[in-house]
Amino acid sequence: MAESRPHYKSHPLWEAAIRLAHDAYGLADAIRAADPNAAGEIRRAAVSVPARIAGALSAETSGEKESEAAGASAALGWLAARAETAKAPSYEGLADRARELSRGVGIQLGGEDRPFS
């Protein structure tokens, strides 16, 4: 018998985080030759965002939910900063999308708006 899809995979924040992670992986690929360390860091941060959002959406306590949301917002802030300094024209909007997702995480999961610039 097939297991049902976890509820968080239908949440708009998680879906946005997956789209952002795919684009961040593209950015990492674009800069890998020039800066392999930064590319690896971008990939790790990108994959942590949907994982943290899933954790917040599946949390059993408010403390766990807030911790996971704060981790997602921190990773998004870091990704936004890296995307701005990457100088990859194809990924210009990535920083703004990361900040917007961070605001959404703060509002919907963290209880307040926690934008990162």
Give an account of the 3D structure.
With 117 residues, the chain is an all-alpha fold. The chain has a single domain, classed as de novo design (two linked rop proteins), CATH 1.20.1440. The protein starts with 11 loop residues before the first helix and ends in a 9-residue tail after the last helix. 70% of the residues lie in helices and 0% in strands.
Explain briefly what this protein structure is.
The protein is mostly helical and 117 residues long. It has helices at residues 12-31, 36-58, 62-85, 94-108. Helices cover 70% and strands 0% of the residues.
SSE arrangement:
Blueprint: H1 12-31, H2 36-58, H3 62-85, H4 94-108
Helix pairs in contact: 1-2, 1-4, 2-3, 3-4
Number of self-contained structural domains: 1
Category by helix and strand content: mainly alpha
Q: How would a textbook summarize the main sheet?
A: none
State the end-to-end distance.
46 Å
CATH class: Mainly Alpha
H and E order: HHHH
Radius of gyration: 14 Å
Architecture, according to CATH?
Up-down Bundle
Q: Number of helical segments? A: 4
Q: Name the beta content range.
A: under 5%
Number of extended strands: 0
Low-confidence stretches: 113-117
User: Residue share in helices?
Assistant: over 70%
Q: What is the arithmetic mean of pLDDT? A: 91
Q: Globular, elongated, flat, extended or rod-shaped: what is the shape?
A: elongated
Assembly state of the chains shown: single chain
Sum up the structure in keywords.
117 residues, disordered C terminus, de novo design (two linked rop proteins), single chain, 4 helices, mainly alpha
